[in-house]
Amino acid sequence: MRKLLLISVLSLIVSIPTFAGGLLTNTNQHILFLRYLARDASTQIDAVYSNPAGLAFMENGFHLSFNGQSAFQTRTINSTFAPLAGFGGNATKKYKGDASAPFIPSLFAAYKRDKWTFSGSFAVTGGGGKATFNDGLGSFESGISLLPIALAKVGFTGTNQYEVNSFMKGSQIIYGLQLGATYKITENFSAYGGVRMNYVSNSYLGYMRNISVNLKGGEMVSLTDPSVVAQLQAAKSQFDYLAENASTPEDKVKWATASATVQTVSNNSADVELDCDQTGWGVTPIIGLDFKKGKWNVGVKYEFNTKLNIENKTRTNSRELAAYKDGVNTPHDIPSLLTAGITYEILPVLRASVGYHHFFDTHAKMANNKQEYINEGTNEYLAGIEYDVCPWAQVSAGMQRTKYGVGDNYQSDMSFAVSSYSYGFGAGFNLAKNMKLNVAYFWTNYGKYNKELSNYNGTGIAGADVFTRTNKVFGIGVDYKF
Questions:
Q1: How far apart are CA 163 and CA 209, in angstroms?
Q2: Containing domain of residue 80, as a range?
């Protein structure tokens, strides 16, 4: 049981992706993505991220873009575990977390002079949200739910209820500063080389407080109450005496086990608290190619795997967990990414695009070697269309299918990935000859992932979790050229 409670607190290291993309990568960094999605063959300012080799086919001059997005997400976990009925009377509990990022900015810049284009961007390239679970999670509560059962087995008959004040809040942000250069090799062909500096800033705060039970069927009382502590100590002393004076080996084991159970309950009655920040950095090399001829444009980009470790800066660690000691480093690689896209001009006022993303998740080292529980990398399939309704306005829409290749051992209530369909639509308005306003709305429909276990969270009792999410993003941005 003690091990189970420690595992529950270890679960505080979470992944909080708020945007579209892979397990640790945000792909919606520009409003054009939100309202079109398939931007992997772009030759506009958003190509700084989505297709940097395509910048060779922009007009000469400076190009700037500033974007702001607001993202709101919920995560819902329905946990079924029989002992949970001791707190509320229902073996199935709904744990809901709210994640929000009210304002996430991004800045793009490019300067094109004949065959050369120099570009840069600053954006939140991973994470970006804060998740709060006001009632904790099943992985927290399942360990506590066993305490009444344990007490009932060692003579405190009638103990069948518990209470706990559980809370978890976490945030994860990866800031990315990208710089690179594009060269137009021929009239139809260009290449790009660049790097992105990534800085990780995570924070986690969680606790389990005021653990109480209805001892012997009476009123709820804290397990740290002096009278309860005295009863537990008396019971342990009695079991120790019986074990020492047992007449048979079987009796000796029986009473020694009872004594150990009481000790475990005592050890895990105190509040559990953790307050930890994590920081780290890594560099992502990026290369790209683009081919443009007539009405067709094809773009390809490859981002190399980013070697990255994060270091703990711990303020509170009540159980002195080794993984959270101040200064400890944890692997946090950003997976390599291959993107490819095609755009075709159907009419002078109508364009369509398709795209493909593959994240090489199995090559990226993660905490507790979670990459070993990924069957294959993430695959994304995108399509979009844009229509010029008049000389100064465009409307567009697109969709994305995201399929994760994670297995049961990867999924937990603190960090899970659910395959989804995303949709976006919006408009662009030419406010002036050199200024454009983009607005968009983007949402994601997630499926459900069912995880059934014969040994729920290491308890030895069967249980199950059902994971799902919701996601909505609003965006507005301004593109300017001079």
A1: 9
A2: 2-224+269-481
